[in-house]
From TrEMBL:
GO terms for molecular function: 2 iron, 2 sulfur cluster binding; 3 iron, 4 sulfur cluster binding; 4 iron, 4 sulfur cluster binding; electron transfer activity; metal ion binding; succinate dehydrogenase (quinone) activity. InterPro entries: 2Fe-2S_ferredoxin-like_sf, 2Fe2S_fd_BS, 4Fe4S_Fe-S-bd, 4Fe4S_Fe_S_CS, Beta-grasp_dom_sf, Helical_ferredxn, SDH/FRD_Iron-Sulfur, Succ_DH/fum_Rdtase_Fe-S. The lineage of its organism: Bacteria, Pseudomonadati, Thermodesulfobacteriota, Desulfovibrionia, Desulfovibrionales. Belongs to the succinate dehydrogenase/fumarate reductase iron-sulfur protein family. It comes from Halodesulfovibrio spirochaetisodalis. Residues 142-171 form the 4Fe-4S ferredoxin-type domain. Part of an enzyme complex containing three subunits: a flavoprotein (frdA), an iron-sulfur protein (frdB), and diheme cytochrome b (frdC). It holds the Pfam family Fer2_3. Gene3D superfamilies: 3.10.20.30, Alpha-helical ferredoxin. This is succinate dehydrogenase. Its EC number is 1.3.5.1. GO terms for biological process: respiratory electron transport chain; tricarboxylic acid cycle.
């Protein structure tokens, strides 16, 4: 017998001076293969057309439908209601600016983070020649870079992060994994000092408390912790280069502290 779901939703419209933050209950009959995204659409279509939440692809690709589902950040379109109890409580992702109800502005946050970490290939080539033959890259390396390029900017890892919730200038695991992606890329000619300037501080790798909340909630299973560890060790070694004896540094570097290419 199908369940009757009690879905409790955070409601607030910051643009309406009469709006007060509160929780509102809705009830929906569950059916096979129902996702939370479908349940929210049923509520909006049949019960309350003013309910705000975001979606675009319905397939875990666009990253729009992130929200806090029974206390845990996740994608509504990737969440089957059968995996949840019949009482479901939904909040908007914290850290990001609230647009209304379950809808938040992740775009501004990610644009700002991308600008701060300079998320583009840096090199001295004066001009891009569209007619030149492409430089080949080893398949294994291309796959490693692709692995880190799969982020859909849903914001779940940022919302799950204790540091990001305490300090709004923290770049988060997603940005650090993005830097790691450029660090791997042989076309990016930045050196360790350049990366240090970008993430070698409390807003970057040294602000992370390492409690793994980010990786636990990432719907794309991006290896955030590995990248945090690799970047942190690389930058820590860089910062003591002039102090530690060469022999000790070499030992550290051979303990998997850095990606092979650098
Ligand atoms: S491991 Fe670091 S980046 Fe990830 S959630 Fe914890 S503090 Fe945030
Ligand atoms: S790293 Fe994962 S959780 Fe974080 S924004 Fe990207 S896809 Fe979402
Ligand atoms: S609607 Fe695109 S990820 Fe959920």
């Amino acid at each position: 017998m199908s369940r009757r779901l009690h879905i409790e939703v955070f409601r607030y419209n910051p643009l309406d001076p009469n709006s007060e933050p509160h929780m509102q209950s809705f009830y929906v009959n569950e059916y096979d293969s129902m996702t939370l995204f479908i349940a929210l659409n049923i509520i909006r279509d049949e019960q309350d057309p003013t309910l705000q939440f975001d979606f675009c692809c319905r397939a875990g690709i666009c990253g729009s439908c992130g929200m806090v589902i029974n206390g845990r950040p996740g994608l509504a379109c990737h969440t089957q209601t059968r995996d949840l109890p019949d009482h479901i409580v939904l909040h908007p992702l914290p850290v990001f600016k609230l647009i209304g109800d379950l809808s938040v502005d992740t775009g501004t946050w990610f644009r700002d983070a991308g600008a701060r970490i300079e998320a583009w290939v840096h090199n001295d080539h004066e001009q891009f020649d569209p007619k030149a033959e492409e430089v080949r890259m080893e398949n294994d390396l291309a796959n490693e870079i692709f692995e880190l390029d799969r982020c859909i900017e849903c914001g779940c890892c940022v919302s799950a992060c204790g540091t990001a919730r305490m300090r709004e200038d923290f770049l988060g695991a997603t940005s650090i994994a993005r830097v790691a992606r450029f660090y791997l890329d042989p076309r990016d000619e930045r050196n360790e000092e350049n990366y240090y300037q970008v993430i070698g501080n409390d807003q970057g790798v040294f602000g992370c408390m390492g409690l793994l909340g980010c990786e636990d909630v990432c719907p794309k299973h991006i290896p955030l912790q590995d990248q945090l560890g690799i970047m942190r060790r690389m930058l820590a070694i860089h910062s003591v280069k002039g102090i530690l004896p060469k022999r000790v540094l070499e030992k550290l570097q051979h303990k998997g502290c850095c990606h092979e290419s650098h």
